[in-house]
Every structure is written in C-alpha cells, then in structure tokens.
Amino acid sequence: MTRRPETIAAQALIGYDAKTGAVAPPIHLATTFSRDASYELIDGRHYARDDAPTPQLAEAVIAALEGGPAAMVYASGMAAATAAIRAHLVPGAHVIAPRACYFAVRSWLASFAARWGVAVDFVDTSDTAAVAAALRPGVTRLVWIETPANPTLEVSDIAAIAELAHAAGARLCVDSTAATPVHAHPLALGADLVMHSATKFLAGHSDVLAGALVTAREDAVWADLHLMRREEGPCLSPHAAFLLLRGMRTLFARVPQQSATALALATRLGELPGASVRYPGLGAHPQHALAARQMSGGFGGLVALQTGGGAARALAVIQRLRVWVRATSLGGVESLVEHRATVEGPDSPTPPDLLRLSCGLEHVEDLFADLAEALRA
Ligand SMILES: *Cc1c(COP(=O)(O)O)cnc(C)c1O
Q1: CB 209 less than 6 A from any atom of ligand 1
Q2: Is pLDDT above 90 for 1?
Q3: End-to-end CA separation in angstroms for the chain
Q4: CATH number belonging to domain 251-376
Q5: What CA–CA distances, in Å, run from 227 to 80, 124, 209?
Q6: Is 301 a pocket residue for ligand 1 (Cβ < 6 Å)?
Q7: Contact criterion met (CB below 8 Å) for 175 and 102
Q8: Coil, helix or strand for 286?
Q9: Is the pLDDT of residue 117 over 90?
Q10: CA gap 103, 50 in Å, rounded
Q11: N or C: which terminus of the chain carries fewer CB neighbours within 10 A?
Q12: Catalytic residue (one of 49, 136, 230, 320)
C-alpha cells in the first residue's frame, strides 16, 4: 500500500519493530558490524562512518518525504551544504549562488571556494534572467539556490532554473530548509539535489544539529558524496539521528500550523503603521505567484519584519519582546526572533532594520500582541 507523507513521517517508516513490538525506533550505538563465519557482512554494514542503522532510518524517511531514491544525513546543515557544493567542484569550476541566502553558505563560498580557484557569482536568483545571464555553458558546474531564502524570503523559480542549468551542463541544488518537504518538492521540479538544515523544521525542537541531502538519481555525483562522507566523516550520530526521527514524526502537525501562524502574523503586522513585512504568502510579495505555484499547503514559518528606523529601531523593538525568544536559528516549536544584521556583521547584505521571525507553536494572539506592543512603543 502506498503511504502518504503524513503516514510515513508519523510512523517513522517502521510503525513498530516486528521483533520486539517497540513502536519507537531503537538507537543502535554500534560503531562496527560483525561478519559471519564465511566472512560476509551480516546486513551490508561494515563500520558506522560508512552507514549505521539509526541514521539510515532517518535517511529513508527524508528520501520518502522528498520523493527521491536516496538521502544522506550529516552532522549539520553546513556539513551537508559544503559536501554538496564540493562534490561539484574541480579547479577552475564556476558556481552560481544566490546573493540572498544563508549567511554561512555565502561566506564559505566567498572564502574557501575562492581559495581553491573556483569562481563564484552571487546573483539574484529570484530573477531567472539574471541566472541565465550568469551561466557559462560547459564551465558552470553548479547552480545553488535557496527558496524561500533566509532571511529576506526571495523565491526562486526551481523548474525554470533547473531547465537553464541543465541546458548549460550544470546541476541544480536547492536549499529547501525554509520550505520543508511539507510545502515543496524541488526534485519533482527538476532539481538534482535537495539540501536541508534538518536542525530547523525537520527536527523542529532546537535540540539537535543535523543536515540532509536528497538526490534525484543515484548517479556518479551521489556515489562521490557517499565516498566523501565515508572518508571525511561528517556523519550524524545515532543519538542525533534518533532525535531527528523523533522530531519528524510530528512534522505534518507542526509545519502547517507554523505556516498558518506566519501568514496570519505577516498579514496583521503589515497593517501596522511604520512596519513592513516580507512573506511569500502575501499577495504583495514580488514572487507571490511563483511561490503559490511551486509551494503547496503554505509558505513556511519565516517572516521578515522591517521595523523602519534602521538598526537602532529594530534593536529597540527586539529588546521589548517578552514572548518571542531572542535567539538565532529557526524552525523550532518556540518562536525565535533575530536581528540578522548584528549577527552577520559589517558585510551583511541584510537590511539593517530587518527582524527575522521564526514562528513556533505558541498561540498566534500572544505572538501578535507581543510584536504589536513592541512596535507601538
Ligand atoms: C541553518 C541553515 C543552514 C545551516 O544549517 P546548520 O544545521 O546550522 O549547519 C543552511 N541553510 C539554511 C537555509 C539554514 O537556515
């Protein structure tokens, strides 16, 4: 029987363990796996840096949710992102990356990639024509996009960029952390790889670092990625994999509510004098029609609130909040607010008056009242 994503997530693909009846997956801590008397591996596993049962179960769930044949989990989102990018690099290669994207991906590309002779163009990937103009046929190896982009929430056209990238001999990797598999399926739109910071919505409780890649095909790049993880060792620990699995079981209960809260807050905050809001679910968002086309069931739990009045006003507003938690990261059950420009430093492309809101599961009226009061003062 085919199972819908909600069922796959809720049962963590096991339902129950046929041997013990346990309805939660075990945490297998073994680092090494024995061989039988004829020296054959018993269940195909050799050593936990290659593959281990608890991370593999998390991989099976994530692959099923994204609709890909295979996934790999990593010790963090950045471990997954940098592996995905490096797997495409050769000396002299060219990479296209978004001007607006997760800050550590951008700064890693700008520093390390450049040091290895890789050319990186940071373009506005929400402008498909700008991507087309930046592509160098036969030289561009990878187009990296993040949609919606953290923290400014631009939306990039996955299907159109996949087609352009493929026509130029490049591959497309989509950081789908903010969209989650609840709202988007980049592989179905032509992406070659999907990346998640599973630390965020997938795990959902701000208590585990994890990353994931999902592939469209088990091809040579995927084989390389597997070899890189095995030899470099950025594996997800069994404990962390269990927490990720545990979090994903409630993914379809959490994320739709977080997105509904985000839409309600974005709508109401936008009506307050002085404040302006960016949210892909609002009709006024420049890529709203595209977001509505390539996302389903909601637009994610992130809202960008611009307070006006520069960094000073944004910081004054954030200081007055009593329900929202002032912390970096996103996707957890508690609502977090962050002044990205402070965290990103002087090179930050983020508007100085922007507060990134990550909507959790609190009552929407408590979240709204807290912000409205802080903005009124
Ligand atoms: C957090 C985040 C990352 C990095 O993930 P870590 O798990 O913190 O290493 C990458 N991309 C996006 C969009 C993120 O929000």
Answers
A1: yes
A2: no
A3: 57
A4: 3.90.1150.10
A5: 13, 33, 22
A6: no
A7: yes
A8: coil
A9: no
A10: 30
A11: N
A12: 49
